[in-house]
Amino acid sequence: MNHNQLFDWRRRSILAVFFVLVRCVSAADLGDLTPVSDWNAVAKGVWRAEIGNLSHEIRYSDLAAAPPKIEALNELSDAAFPFSKDAVSYLVGRDHKVLVRIPTAEDETLYGFGLQLDGIKKSRKVMTLNVDHWSKGGGRTHAPVPFYISSKGYGVFFNTARFLKIYNQVGNRKDSLRNPAEVDRNPPPDEKQAGPWLAQPPGDSVEAQVNGEGMELVVFSGQSLLEVVQRYNLFSGGGALPPLWGLGFWHRVHAKFNADQVREELAEFEQRDFPIDVVGLEPGWMTKSYPCTFEWQKKRFPDPAGFAKELLDDGVRLNLWENPFISKHSRLYESMYPLSGSHLVWLGLVPDYTMPEARKLLTDQHHKDHIGIGISGYKIDEVDGYDFWLWPDHATFPSGISGEAMRQSYGLLMQNMLYTDLFKQRNVRTYSLVRAANGAASGYPFVIYSDAYSHKEYLTGISTSSLCGILWTPEARSARSDREWLNRMQTVCFSAMAQLNAWSSGKKPWSYDGVTDAVREVIQLRMRLLPYLYSAFAEYQQQGVPPIRAMILEDGFSAEQDEIIEGTLDSETNPYAMGKRIEKTDQYMFGRSILVAPFYEAQAIEREVQLPAGNWYDFYTGQWVGNGETITVTAAGLGDRIPLFVKDGAVIPMLSRSVNQADKAIGHPLEVRWYGKRAGFFDLYEDDGQSFDYERQVFRWRRLSVESVKAQAVRLEESIVSGTGQAMFGPVGRFSVMTE
Amino acid sequence: MNHNQLFDWRRRSILAVFFVLVRCVSAADLGDLTPVSDWNAVAKGVWRAEIGNLSHEIRYSDLAAAPPKIEALNELSDAAFPFSKDAVSYLVGRDHKVLVRIPTAEDETLYGFGLQLDGIKKSRKVMTLNVDHWSKGGGRTHAPVPFYISSKGYGVFFNTARFLKIYNQVGNRKDSLRNPAEVDRNPPPDEKQAGPWLAQPPGDSVEAQVNGEGMELVVFSGQSLLEVVQRYNLFSGGGALPPLWGLGFWHRVHAKFNADQVREELAEFEQRDFPIDVVGLEPGWMTKSYPCTFEWQKKRFPDPAGFAKELLDDGVRLNLWENPFISKHSRLYESMYPLSGSHLVWLGLVPDYTMPEARKLLTDQHHKDHIGIGISGYKIDEVDGYDFWLWPDHATFPSGISGEAMRQSYGLLMQNMLYTDLFKQRNVRTYSLVRAANGAASGYPFVIYSDAYSHKEYLTGISTSSLCGILWTPEARSARSDREWLNRMQTVCFSAMAQLNAWSSGKKPWSYDGVTDAVREVIQLRMRLLPYLYSAFAEYQQQGVPPIRAMILEDGFSAEQDEIIEGTLDSETNPYAMGKRIEKTDQYMFGRSILVAPFYEAQAIEREVQLPAGNWYDFYTGQWVGNGETITVTAAGLGDRIPLFVKDGAVIPMLSRSVNQADKAIGHPLEVRWYGKRAGFFDLYEDDGQSFDYERQVFRWRRLSVESVKAQAVRLEESIVSGTGQAMFGPVGRFSVMTE
Q1: Which candidate from A96, A291, A386 shows the least CB-CB separation from B96?
Q2: Is the pTM of this model over 0.90?
Q3: Number of domains chain A is built from
Q4: Is B356 within 8 Å of A501 when comparing Cβ atoms?
Q5: What is the residue range of A712's domain?
Q6: Which of A228, A403, A538, A629 is the most buried (most CB within 10 A)?
Q7: Which residues of B350-365 are buried (b: 16+ CB within 10 A; e: fewer)?
Q8: Both B449 and B531 in a single domain?
C-alpha cells in the first residue's frame, strides 16, 4: 500500500465513524438538559420526581422497612422547595443513560453519600457509588447511600438501585453562567498571575448519571440539617428501634468455639463482673461455612435448642453469623438452585430474594432451626464484595433483576427478608448486623461493621453513617497496646452497638491487663445509660433523629474548621500542586445531649474538642468546660475515661447502678442528672422493650423536667406526655445536680 | 398504621417489584449464553467477530494509523483458531449491556491489558478498563488497552471504545463443569480440612462486559507469545517507525524558559559534550496555558521561526507541549465552540476531533504556526484524566460520540489527527509524546509518559507496554541521590525515548556531580546503538516485533518464577488470609539481542538477573555469564554501568564512536560486535530516516552475517537482502569478536 492509499484509507475510516455518529445526533445529545417539572409532594418538605422510564428500575424506598411516616413529616417545620422551579434538569440519553443536574451555590458544602470512612464532606469529589467491601473513601463502601445533604439546608436522594457516578461540584459546563475565570499557569515574568491556578476549578452543580432508563429523585427540605436528615429517615419509614437488650454488651466468640467453650466464657464474664447481653456465634456453628448450610454443627452444638434456652434463662441471647451463599451440603440447595443467580459466591448459590419462593425457603428453615429456638438475630456477612468474590456485575438472576441492581440492594433485601418475614411476623424485635446497606434503610435494626480497622476511620464512620439512615459499630477486635484496647472499647461503648468481635483474635474484654477495670467501667457506664440511649432510638424511630450523630447536625457547631494544607508544586510527587483538607470527624453526639470525643491513635494522650456554641459541662464532674471554643483534653493516666461533655440544661436519666444484662434495667430505679444552669427536660421512652406493640401505640413518653425555680432551688418533675404504655424503668431514686 | 397494615404494605411493595421484574424475564436473562459462531478470518491467525449491534460503537481499529498489514500477517507461521468452534459465547442483555465469555484452562496465565505499572500478569483480577491518569494498577491507566495474551499462545482484543469491566478467571458460574470443590473453612476438630480454603476460588473463563449494544472481538493466534503480539501489532497497521533523530537524546526545559535560556542550555550541552537531539518546550512557550492557545508567547520567543531554524541548523529539533483544551484567548475559540463538548477541561473547550471541521481548525493553525517553521512534534498532555478535571462520563459531544467513548479514545484521536493530518500529509515523520492511548495504537510514533515516578513501576511499564502496541518512556525528572539519577538515566537510555523532563525540576544531565561522566557514557552508548535500535523499530513497523520487550516474549524465558507470599489470617489486617505475588518485571529485552537489567531503588547495588535458556554474555566484556540461570550482578562503584547481556550468536551494529546528534549517525562508520560462539547475523535497516518514503519501498535491509568458518576463524559478510533504498550508515570500520 502506498502513501496515498494509506491516507485515503484513514480518511475513509474516520469519515465512516463520523457519519455513523452524526446520524444519531439529536437536540438532546447536544447537551440540552430538560428541567424536571413534575415534583410531587410526599409530605411537608419532601418532593419526588420520576425521570424517564422507571418500570425496569428498583427504588430503594420499595425495599424500606416501612412506608413514609407522613404524619411525623408534617409535624416538622415548614420548608420550601429548595430550588427554583426549573433549576433541576435531566437528560435521558440515547445511550441508556440518565443524567441529572442539580445546581449548587458557590459557598455550598455537600455531606453524606453513605457510610464513608475518609470524611464527611463530599464537595468537589467524583464518586461511583457501588456497594463494596472497601470503604476506603470514595464511592465504594458498605453503604454507598445515594443521598447527600447540603449546607444550604436540603437533601437529595437518588432513589434508584444502580451504580451512580456523581460529580459533586466538579466539572464546568461550557454554557454555565458561573464558570471561574481562566488563570494562565505560566505567565511571562512581566505579567502578574491573576490568582492561583487551580487543578480543580469549582463547578456549579452536582451532576449524576446512572446506566438505566430512569431515575427517581427525592428532595428534602428543613430548617436545619438535622431536619433534612429527619425527613430522609421518616421518608424511609422512620428509624429502627432495637430491643432493649440490643443496646447492652455484645461479645462474638472465636469462630471455632463449641457450646462448652461459650459456657466457660460466659462464666468468666460473670465471675469478672462484666455485663453481657448477646453472644455472637461465628461460622463454626454451622455444618459447613463459606458457603453456608445454616444448619447446626452438632459436633460443636449438640443441643442447640437446649443451649439457646439455657443462655436465655440467664438473660443472654445468641446471634448467628451467616452469609447468604448456599452450600451444596445445605438441605436448601436443590430447591434454591433454580431460584439463584448465574454465578456462585465462594462456590455457593446466590439466592434471588426478590422472589417470594426463595424467601420462603430460607425463612422457613430459619424459623424452624433458629428463631423457633430463641435465636435473637443474625450477622449477615459479605453481601458487599470485593468484586473478585461477589457475583460479577453481569450476573443474571431468575427474576430478571440485573447483577448491578442486585449488588446495590442485596444487603437491603436480606434485611427486608429477615426483619419482615422472620422477626416482625413473630412480633419479636431483633437487633442484627449486616455488612451492606443502601438507601432508605433507616427502619432496619441492622448495624453495619467492616473489616477495616483504623480507629480514626471508625470514628469518621460514626459521623457519616448518621447522615443517611445507617447504624454503624466501630467494633473492637484486638489491639497492639492496653491503651489502644481501652480507647477502642470506649468508642464502641458510645456507638450503636457495643461489640467485641473475637471471631479470629479470641480476645475478651479483660484481655489487656492494665485496663481491665477501665474497660469494665465504660461498659458499665453504657449499661447505666440504657434509659437515655433507648429513648434516643425511640426518637429515631418516631421522629427520624439519629441517636448518634455527626456534629454538623448539632446547633451551634461550626463545620468550617478543617485544616487546609496548601499544595506545593513538585513534578515528582505533586505536579498539579494540589492541596488537601483534614476534617474534624473525631467527635460526635451520643443521644440528645452528650458530646463524645474519644481518645484514639495519635490522639490517645491529648486531643482537641471543638465545642458548639453554648455552655458545655464535663459529664463526670459537671464542671463548665467552655462555650463554642476548641479545648484540649488529656489522658494523663492509662485508665482515663472517655471525654464526654454535656449541654447546658441537659437532663440525663441513668440506671442508679449498672446491670449485667439489659433486661435487668426493666423496673430498675433511675438516677437523673442535670447539667449547667438552664431549665431542661428529658423525654424518657418506655415500652415492653422487645415487641412491635409500639406500632399500636403501646408505649409512653415520660417527661423528666428540671426547673430552676429560684436561685439554688431546683426541682425535678415527672409527667406522661403521650402514649398508652406502662412503665419500663423504675422510679427516680436519685436526682443529681451536677453543676453547682 | 398498625402492625398488620405495615406488614401488608411491605408485602405489596416487594411483590410489586417482583412482578415488574418477572415481566422482563426471557431465556437470555437466565444466563443462557449464545456461542459466537461468526468468526471472520482477517488474515492468517487473526479472526474477528461482531457481537450485537455495532452501529453506535467506535472500534479502536477504525482509529488506527494504518489498515491491517495482511501480507506481513500471512508471512507468520500457521496457527489454528485457539478455541473450539462454540467455546466463546456472549449475551446481549436487556440492560444495554454486552457480555462476552472466553474459556480458559486451569493452568493458563493471562498477561497484558495495556500499560500497567503494577505487574504483567493479570490472571485472577477484576478490572474496569478506563483511561486515567493513575496507572496504579488495575484498569485505570494511561493506556488501558483491552487486549490480553494467554500463556496458551493466543490473544484477545475487545475492539470497542467503551469502559470494559473484565473478570479474568474470577467468578464461578453455577453451571460450570469445572468449579473447584467446596472446602469448609471451619471444620470441627475431628474433621481434616480438605485443602486450603480460598478467598478466590479459581474461575474457568474471562468474562467481560460493556455498556453498549455491541462489541467486536478479535482473536490472534501464534506459535509463540511474540507471534501473538506481532499479529496484534500488524492487525493495528504495524508498529511505529520514528525518525532517526527521535531515538537520540531528549531534554525538556523548564516550563518558564525563554529562547535565550534554551540557547544557553544548548551551549552547555555542547561544552560538556552531551548529545542532544530534541529540546522540549513546556507550557510557557504559549501565550496562555491550561487551557491553551497554541500561539507563541512572544515575550519568551520573539522569533519562533528564526529560533526553530537556528536550532535545526545545529541538528536540534523542537517539540512542543500542549494539551488539547482551548482557551478563550485562542484565535480558535469561537470557531471551535460549536464543535466542542458540553463540558470544559480547566475551563478550556474540548474539541470533538471526530469531526473533520474541528480537525481542520486545529491542524491548519498547527501547520502554519508550528510545522511550517520546523517543529518536529508534540507532547500531548492530560488527555487521560483524573475524573475530576476531565470531562465527565456524561458529557455530550456534537458528533454524538458519548463522553465515555471520547474518554477511551481521545488520546488515540489526537494521535490520529496530528500524525495523519500534519506530519504524514507533509511526508515528514514525527516522534512525539502523548499521555493516553488505547487499542490498535501501535502504528503511532507517540510515546506514553506519566506523572507516576517509581523507578520499579517505570520498569514494569517497559514490559507491559510491549504487549499491546504502546511505546513508553520512563523519563528522568529528578532524583534524591547521584546513584538514583544515574540509575534512572541508564534505564531511560534503554527505553523507547531517552528523555530528561526538567519542566519543573530544572535538572540537567550533569546536575548530579558524582555521576556526570557515567551519565554521559550511557547517553553516548545509546547514540552508538542507533543503527541497532533503529533496525529494531523497523522490525516493529514491518513485522510487529516490539523493539523493547517483556521477557515473556523471549524464547527460553520462564515466566513462572514469581515470589509467592502466603497469606496469614489476621482479623485486623487480612481476614480472608489472602496471599500475594511479587513478579519479576525488572528486566527486559532491548532490540533483537540485548537483555537489560537496570539497577534501581533497593536493587541499586546488587540485583538478580534471570537469564533465559541459552548462553548469555556480558555486553561490555563478551564474557560468558550463564545459561538459563539466575545470576547476581553488583554495582560496586557509584558509576558502574547498566548491566547488559547478549545472546549467543548476537551481531550488534554500533556507530564506531558516539555522535552528539542522531543526524550525524548518517554515513557514520560502524563497529560490528559478535558475541558467543554461534554463527549469527543482524539485518540492518536503512532508509532516509525522516520521510514516509519507506512506505513506497524506499529502504533496504543490509545483512551483517558472522560465520565461524572454522575454529578461531571468523568472517563478517555483508549483503542486501531486500529493499530498494540507499545506504544510511557508513561501512563497517571495525569487526569486534567479543567472546574469545
Answers
A1: A96
A2: yes
A3: 4
A4: no
A5: 651-738
A6: A228
A7: bbbbbbbebbebbbeb
A8: yes
